[in-house]
């Protein structure tokens, strides 16, 4: 998905209230940076739990 379209979704979909970016993760964070993805998901869970 093009970065521009991702940004458009963030800007135009009202239900999007929180966005996390994993720098350098490419399009498959689970393959390229699994530790950083896990840390980010845990951060989100802790915020909303």
Automatic annotation (TrEMBL):
Entries under Gene3D superfamilies matching the protein: alpha/beta hydrolase (3.40.50.1820)
Domain of life: Eukaryota
Protein name: AB hydrolase-1 domain-containing protein
Organism: Solanum lycopersicum (Tomato)
């Amino acid at each position: 998905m093009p970065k521009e379209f991702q940004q458009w979704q963030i800007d135009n979909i009202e239900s999007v209230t929180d966005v996390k970016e994993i720098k350098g993760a490419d399009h498959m964070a689970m393959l390229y940076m699994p530790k950083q993805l896990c840390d980010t998901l845990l951060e989100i869970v802790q915020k909303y739990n």
